[in-house]
Amino acid sequence: MIEVLLSSPMLTIQDSGRTGWRHLGVPRCGMMDDLALRQGNLLLDNDEGAAALEITSAPVLLRFLRDSAIVLMGADMQASILDADIANTRQQRLLTGFVYLLRAGDCLRLNAAKTPGQRALLMVRGGIDVPLVLGSRSTDIMNGFGGLQGQALRAGDKIPVGEHPEKPLPLKTGVRQHSWNHTLRVLTGPDFAHFGQDSRRALFEKSWMVTAQSNRMGLRLQGDSLRQHDPTDQPSSRQLSIGVLPGLIQVPPDGQPILLAADAQTTGGYPAIASIISADLWQLAYMTSGTRVRFAQISLAEAHGLARHQQQQMLRLRDALRLRGEPA
Amino acid sequence: MSIPDPTISFVTEHGILLEFVAADSGTVDPSLQRRLCQLATLLREHSHTGPLLCDIVTAPGSLLLVLHDGRTARRLLRHAETLWRASAQKTIEPRIVTIPVVYGGEFGPDLEQAARVCGLSTTAFVECHAGGNYFVQSLGFMPGFAYLGGLHPQLHIKRKNTPSARVPAGSVAIGGSNTGIYPSESPGGWHIIGRTSVTLFDAQAQQPCLLKPGDTVRFIAQKEKQL
Hints:
heterodimer; A: alpha+beta; 3 helices; 14% helix; B: 21% helix
C-alpha cells in the first residue's frame, strides 16, 4: 500500500493501456511514455505493462506502508527519500532508471520538474494493483473508470500494490531514459494530398508550438495555418467521421493541428494530415505549453522497421536483466 | 447494389483505413453500413484475422483496422477480401434492441423547438421518431455512444451552434442525420428530445455496452411521463 500524503493535478494510475474496446468508443488511455513504463517494470521484474503512477506536476509526497522497491523514469522531479517522520532525508536526488529500496514507513518526495508539465513515472515492484476494468488498470479520467474510482489521486488515497516473489533486484544496473528532442517522425495521412502545397511544405519545414490547451486527449499546436487546396474544390473536406488513434495529426477548420494522445476519442471528423510513428509517440509525454515541435517525414517501411527495432531493444533489455538476476 | 472496392490507406503505421464511400460524401447506404459492421465482426472472430487485430473501429462508410504489427497488413487484407466476398451471400439477422423513452417535458427540453424547426406538431414528431427502425452505424464520442442511422429525413436537424454544457445520461437526441443516446452525462451539441432509464454503458459489466455496431434499435414512447 502507498498512501498519498500530498497530491498534485493529474497524478494518475496508468498501465500499458486498454485495447480491444475501441469499437465501443472506449479510448486507449495508458502511460503517455509507454517505453519508460516498460523499461522501469523490467528493471523491477514486473510484467512489462504493469500499472504505475504518472506524475504530471509536483510537489508530491507518498508514504510506502511496507518495504518497497521503486524506479523513477521520465522527467527528473528532484526526488528524495525521507524517513517516516519526514524529518530526515535518507537519500537525495534519486536518479531515473535505477532501483531504490524503501523501508516500511519511508516517504518519497517529488519536488519540482525543471520544465513544468513534463511527466515523471513511478514504477513499484509488484505493480499498482487496482482492479482491472475492461482489461486494464489505466485511469480513464474523461469517462470516470479505471485506476482508483476513475479519478486522479488525491491526498488520503491509499494505492494497493501487488504481491511479488522474493528475488534480488539489480541495484547497480540502470536503464537509460530515452532523451526527447521534440522532433517527431511522421507518415503522411489519408488526407495529406487534400492540403495545398504550401501547407504540405509548412508541416515539415516550420516548427509548431504546443499551446496551453493540451492534455492527455490531445496536444493543440500553433503555427502556420494549414489549408486545404481550394476550399471550393471538391473533394476537399471530410464529411464522415473515421476511426482515429493516438498519434494521428488532425487539422480542424482553423488550420491549427491537433496531435491525438493516449486519451483521444475513438472517432473523429477532422482531416488526418499525418501520423506520428509509434516509436516516437512516447515523446508526447514531455511536450508542454511552449515546446517547439518539428515533424520529419519517413516511409511506412522505415516506420515498421523502427517499431520492430524498439521491440527488439526491449527484448534484449529483458534478457540482459534476467541473466544478471541469476545467482553467480 | 454494387459496392465499390474500398480505398485502402494507412492512418498510422499499424492502422489501416478501409473507405467504402468517398471522403466528401455525406451519406452512407444503410445496407453497405450493415455489411461493414458484419465484416468487422467476422474479422474479429475469425481464427486467422482475430489474433492479428488489436481493434476494429466501425465508422460511417469506413473501417479502421488496428494491427498489433503493421507488417501483417497484406495478410490481413487478403483474408478481409475473402470474408467480404463471402459475406455478400449471407446476412446475419441484426439483433433488435428496444429502448423505452419518455419524450418531451423536463426530459426532452428541446422537443418543442425541434418539432417547430421541422414543421411538425410535437405529437407527429414523436410518432415519427418512435416509429423508426434505426441501426447502430458506429460508436464513438464517448464509450457506448451509438450513432444511429435511419432517421427520417424530416427529422434531420443541424447541431446546436453552442453545445449544452450538461446533457444528462440517457438523453435521447438528434444531431444532423443521426439520432443517439448519451450514455453518461457530458457536454453535447445535439437536440435533446427525451430520456431513457436504460443503462447504455457500464465499464464494470461483463458486456459493457448495450449497443453494438450493426444492431437494430427501436424506440418506444412511454405513456407515463416519468422514468
